[in-house]
Design a protein that fits this description.
This protein has 202 residues and is of the alpha+beta class. The chain has one domain. 42% of the residues lie in helices and 27% in strands. Strand 1 and strand 2 form a beta hairpin. The longest helix has 68 residues. The chain starts with a helix and ends with a strand.
Length: 202
């Protein structure tokens, strides 16, 4: 093979090498863009989960306050143990605080829902940050959205024929809790997590 032929071969190979290098770089940047989008999406889901849990926990706190008032004064106080909710705008405010801590904003407030018979809250969020610049046009203005639902699940069983005016024993997932309406103080109630669990369902 002559020197001229070798130079010609190199001249033909160089454009192919440049094209392959450019293609690989584009693919690498594209994968990076998808990774950016996935990270933003994960951030939105984490914010939604935290916001939904905060909303449900706020509602559980309100439920505990009402239960504490009802025992000894309301003959229907045992029904509060089923997770009956009467809430104000506290759950939405709690959801907004947690979303803000995750650099996101709640869309539409905390919506009260029911899942498998348990009361809860659905929260939708949008990130304040975007996917960012990438080789894919438009990503610099794309925000991620996500939603989550958290429920309040009663943990205690008791005799369905129990007299609400007399001492009642609750079996809260194996932990026994005794409540005597005739000699009751709000501080007699156990921690909220003993009576009700809060967890994500979606």
């Amino acid at each position: 093979m002559t020197l001229t032929q070798r130079l010609n071969d190199r001249g033909q190979t160089l454009p192919i090498y440049i094209w392959l290098t450019g293609t690989l770089l584009f693919v690498a940047f594209a994968f990076f863009a998808f990774a950016q989008a996935a990270s933003t999406r994960n951030g939105a889901q984490s914010a939604a989960d935290a916001a939904a849990l905060a909303a449900a926990q706020d509602a559980r706190d309100q439920l505990m306050d009402r239960l504490g008032v009802a025992v000894g004064q309301d003959d229907d106080w045992l029904t509060w143990l089923s997770g009956r909710l009467t809430v104000d705008d506290g759950p939405t405010a709690a959801a907004q605080r947690l979303a803000a801590e995750n650099d996101s904003v709640v869309e539409g407030g905390a919506q009260q829902v029911t899942r498998d018979g348990h009361p809860g809250f659905q929260v939708a969020v949008q990130t304040n940050y975007t996917v960012g610049n990438s080789v894919i046009p438009g990503t610099e203005g794309m925000h991620a959205r996500a939603h989550a639902i958290a429920v309040i699940q009663p943990r205690c069983d008791f005799d369905p024929n129990a007299d609400p005016k007399k001492p009642v024993q609750l079996n809260c997932d194996g932990q026994m809790v005794n409540i005597d309406p005739g000699h009751f103080h709000t501080g007699d109630l156990p921690d909220a997590s003993v009576l009700f669990s809060v967890h994500l369902v979606e």
